[in-house]
Amino acid sequence: MSTVIHDASPRTVSIRIGPGIWRWERRALAVRGILIVILLMVGAASLAIGTYQLDLSQVLSALTGGGEGNVRKLVLEWRLPRVLFAVLGGLALGISGAIFQSLTRNPLGSPDVIGFDAGSYTGALVVMLVLGSVSYATIATGAVLGGVVTALAVYLLAYRRGIQGFRFIIVGIGVSAFLVGINSYLLISTGAQEARAAVSWGFGSFSALGYEQLVPFVLVLIVILPLVAIVRRGFAQLELGDDAAKAVGVGVERSRLTMTALGVALTAIVTAAAGPISFVALVAPQVVRRLVRTPGLDVVSAGLMGAVLLLAADFVGQRVDITVGLVTVVLGGGYFAWLLIKEGFRR
């Protein structure tokens, strides 16, 4: 049984659920509500608008098992998996970005900037071009391993009696540049047909994905997200400083390493499924921070913002016939340039 408690602060709302009391910022709750409404609207538009136009009643009827057979097939088998991939992939990237920006305490601390996307791409290229496999499962495995190995290398190279955020980013950018060179060498040293297929995968797209790829993606996500929720509370103490975190019994390096592994896993499973998708992890937490206006690690809002951004990018990509990865690069590149200029003036 839950009871709403009259909080002393007008900015928060508290609800007693059983023996525990949960507090939320009212502004954060409002932002999350708005993001969910936008997500439903863009999702409905993605299901309805296409080569074969549907109205909202046809979409709702198909989702509830009614309507004509060809409409159900169009909505449930062709368009719905793509929408779910965009929503869940954006959720994973937004949370991953929030983790790394909190870890590095820097708005540039994003898995695609630090080089984890490039590492996943390297792993997939090795599978496709060196091992000669075109199996989705082996490419996905290669992408995940590539991201994990890259994260481990960056962590070890940046470690000096602990992890310092700015050094972590600089080392990551250096490793990313090295991996871009490796990727270019792999592409130019192989046959044109194989290279064309690998480059196509590297643009990031949901067009070839269905329930066969969605089911394992969701299962992995179901394992990772509860772990993030468990570790998040201790990890949030690190934003107050290492000494403050140690004072309340938080294992500083253990928490950092655990959240790094979870953040890499969230990015890697998206890359493994759809190819590298840049800038969503970078942009989503920053936009949320400006909307919510509260310090701290808000993985829920960042995840919802990532889902909105990636679903909207895929919707736009379908209208102009380019991949979602290219849309996020174009839109995110402008944001990245603005962020670099702003950081430059601040220093």
From TrEMBL:
Highest taxon of source: Bacteria
GO BP terms in the entry: siderophore-iron import into cell
Keyword Transmembrane carried by entry: yes
Compartments where found: Cell membrane
GO cellular component annotations of the record: plasma membrane
InterPro entries reported in the protein's UniProt record: ABC_BtuC-like, ABC_transptr_permease_BtuC
Membrane-topology descriptor: Multi-pass membrane protein
Main location: membrane
Single GO term (MF): transmembrane transporter activity
Protein name, per record: Iron complex transport system permease protein
Pfam families in alphabetical order: FecCD
Chain ranges passing through the membrane: 29-52, 83-101, 113-131, 137-158, 165-188, 208-231, 261-284, 296-316, 323-341
Keywords: Cell membrane, Membrane, Transmembrane, Transmembrane helix, Transport
Family, similarity comment: Belongs to the binding-protein-dependent transport system permease family. FecCD subfamily.
The organism's taxonomic lineage, starting at the top: Bacteria, Bacillati, Actinomycetota, Actinomycetes, Micrococcales
